[in-house]
Amino acid sequence: GAKLAEAKKDPHNLHLTTPEMNSLRSNYKFLLLNNVERKRMESNKGGVNYNENTIFHQQKLFVPRMQDFGVISRSVLYCSEKYGIDCAETIVGGRATARYWATVVPMSAREKKHKQLCALWMQSQGKHTLGDGTS
To answer: Which helix (H) or strand (E) holds 43?
Structure first.
Protein backbone atom coordinates (compact mmCIF):
# COMPACT_ATOMS: atom_id res chain seq x y z
CA GLY A 1 0.00 0.00 0.00
CA ALA A 2 0.96 3.57 0.68
CA LYS A 3 3.75 2.66 3.11
CA LEU A 4 5.41 0.39 0.53
CA ALA A 5 5.21 3.14 -2.08
CA GLU A 6 6.81 5.57 0.38
CA ALA A 7 9.56 3.06 1.25
CA LYS A 8 10.42 2.64 -2.44
CA LYS A 9 11.19 6.39 -2.60
CA ASP A 10 13.15 6.57 0.66
CA PRO A 11 16.84 7.18 -0.13
CA HIS A 12 17.88 4.83 2.69
CA ASN A 13 16.37 2.02 0.63
CA LEU A 14 17.93 3.11 -2.68
CA HIS A 15 21.41 1.89 -3.56
CA LEU A 16 23.33 2.25 -6.80
CA THR A 17 23.40 -0.85 -8.99
CA THR A 18 23.55 -1.72 -12.65
CA PRO A 19 20.39 -2.16 -14.73
CA GLU A 20 21.43 -5.77 -15.34
CA MET A 21 21.75 -6.50 -11.63
CA ASN A 22 18.46 -4.80 -10.87
CA SER A 23 16.74 -6.88 -13.54
CA LEU A 24 18.29 -10.14 -12.30
CA ARG A 25 17.37 -9.36 -8.69
CA SER A 26 13.77 -8.77 -9.77
CA ASN A 27 11.54 -9.01 -6.68
CA TYR A 28 13.23 -12.16 -5.45
CA LYS A 29 13.86 -12.60 -1.75
CA PHE A 30 17.41 -12.26 -0.51
CA LEU A 31 18.96 -15.49 0.72
CA LEU A 32 22.02 -14.69 2.81
CA LEU A 33 24.30 -17.72 2.64
CA ASN A 34 27.97 -18.02 3.45
CA ASN A 35 30.20 -19.28 0.64
CA VAL A 36 30.07 -22.94 1.74
CA GLU A 37 26.25 -22.95 1.91
CA ARG A 38 26.07 -21.09 -1.41
CA LYS A 39 28.26 -23.66 -3.21
CA ARG A 40 26.19 -26.53 -1.76
CA MET A 41 22.96 -24.92 -2.95
CA GLU A 42 24.42 -24.13 -6.38
CA SER A 43 25.38 -27.76 -6.88
CA ASN A 44 21.92 -28.99 -5.81
CA LYS A 45 19.61 -26.34 -7.25
CA GLY A 46 21.65 -24.73 -10.03
CA GLY A 47 21.97 -20.99 -10.02
CA VAL A 48 23.05 -18.23 -12.34
CA ASN A 49 26.19 -16.43 -11.21
CA TYR A 50 26.60 -12.75 -11.97
CA ASN A 51 29.34 -10.58 -10.47
CA GLU A 52 29.70 -12.83 -7.39
CA ASN A 53 25.92 -12.92 -6.87
CA THR A 54 23.85 -16.05 -7.44
CA ILE A 55 20.30 -16.01 -8.75
CA PHE A 56 17.99 -19.01 -8.36
CA HIS A 57 15.17 -18.23 -10.78
CA GLN A 58 13.08 -21.33 -10.07
CA GLN A 59 13.09 -20.66 -6.31
CA LYS A 60 12.90 -16.85 -6.82
CA LEU A 61 15.91 -16.28 -4.57
CA PHE A 62 18.84 -13.89 -4.89
CA VAL A 63 22.09 -14.59 -3.02
CA PRO A 64 24.17 -11.39 -2.94
CA ARG A 65 27.91 -11.11 -2.38
CA MET A 66 28.78 -11.64 1.28
CA GLN A 67 30.21 -8.11 1.58
CA ASP A 68 26.73 -6.77 0.72
CA PHE A 69 24.90 -8.71 3.46
CA GLY A 70 25.28 -5.89 5.99
CA VAL A 71 24.01 -3.03 3.85
CA ILE A 72 21.11 -5.14 2.57
CA SER A 73 20.18 -6.19 6.09
CA ARG A 74 20.39 -2.65 7.45
CA SER A 75 18.21 -1.33 4.60
CA VAL A 76 15.61 -4.03 5.22
CA LEU A 77 15.61 -3.36 8.98
CA TYR A 78 15.30 0.38 8.37
CA CYS A 79 12.22 -0.15 6.16
CA SER A 80 10.77 -2.53 8.71
CA GLU A 81 11.19 -0.03 11.53
CA LYS A 82 10.10 3.04 9.59
CA TYR A 83 7.34 1.61 7.39
CA GLY A 84 6.27 -1.58 9.19
CA ILE A 85 7.33 -3.83 6.32
CA ASP A 86 7.89 -7.41 7.49
CA CYS A 87 11.56 -8.37 7.04
CA ALA A 88 10.45 -11.88 6.02
CA GLU A 89 8.94 -10.40 2.85
CA THR A 90 12.44 -9.45 1.70
CA ILE A 91 14.96 -11.75 3.42
CA VAL A 92 14.66 -15.48 3.98
CA GLY A 93 14.83 -15.88 7.77
CA GLY A 94 13.22 -12.49 8.37
CA ARG A 95 14.20 -10.10 11.13
CA ALA A 96 16.52 -12.50 12.99
CA THR A 97 18.62 -13.09 9.88
CA ALA A 98 18.67 -9.39 9.00
CA ARG A 99 19.70 -8.40 12.54
CA TYR A 100 22.46 -11.03 12.58
CA TRP A 101 24.08 -9.86 9.33
CA ALA A 102 23.55 -6.18 10.14
CA THR A 103 25.68 -6.62 13.26
CA VAL A 104 28.26 -9.08 11.83
CA VAL A 105 29.14 -7.13 8.66
CA PRO A 106 30.35 -3.61 9.52
CA MET A 107 29.37 -0.54 7.52
CA SER A 108 31.73 0.23 4.67
CA ALA A 109 32.98 3.78 4.10
CA ARG A 110 30.63 3.97 1.11
CA GLU A 111 27.63 2.91 3.20
CA LYS A 112 28.51 5.44 5.91
CA LYS A 113 28.67 8.21 3.30
CA HIS A 114 25.34 7.05 1.83
CA LYS A 115 23.76 7.17 5.29
CA GLN A 116 25.09 10.70 5.89
CA LEU A 117 23.78 11.93 2.54
CA CYS A 118 20.39 10.32 3.21
CA ALA A 119 20.16 12.01 6.61
CA LEU A 120 21.00 15.40 5.08
CA TRP A 121 18.42 14.93 2.33
CA MET A 122 15.75 13.79 4.80
CA GLN A 123 16.45 16.85 6.99
CA SER A 124 16.18 19.13 3.97
CA GLN A 125 12.77 17.60 3.27
CA GLY A 126 11.66 17.98 6.89
CA LYS A 127 11.43 14.21 7.28
CA HIS A 128 12.45 12.05 10.23
CA THR A 129 15.27 9.53 9.82
CA LEU A 130 16.04 6.45 11.90
CA GLY A 131 19.28 4.83 12.99
CA ASP A 132 21.20 2.20 11.08
CA GLY A 133 18.70 -0.60 11.68
CA THR A 134 20.81 -2.49 14.19
CA SER A 135 19.29 -1.12 17.40
So the answer is: helix 35-45
Per-residue pLDDT tens digits for 6-20: 666 665 566 667 788
Burial 23-46 (b: 16+ CB within 10 A, else e): ebeeebebbbbeeeebeebbeeee
The dihedral through the CA atoms of 23, 119, 90, 55 has a sign that is: positive
Instruction: Decide: residue 131, CB within 10 A, 0-12 exposed, 13-18 middle, 19+ buried.
Output: exposed
Each residue of 77-98: pLDDT tens digit?
A: 988 998 898 999 999 999 999 9
Contact 87, 80 (CB under 8 A): yes
CB neighbour list of residue 120: distance below 8 Å, 6 or more residues apart? none
Collapsing DSSP to helix, strand or coil, 29 comes out as strand
3-state helix, strand, coil in the chain (%, to 5): 55, 10, 35
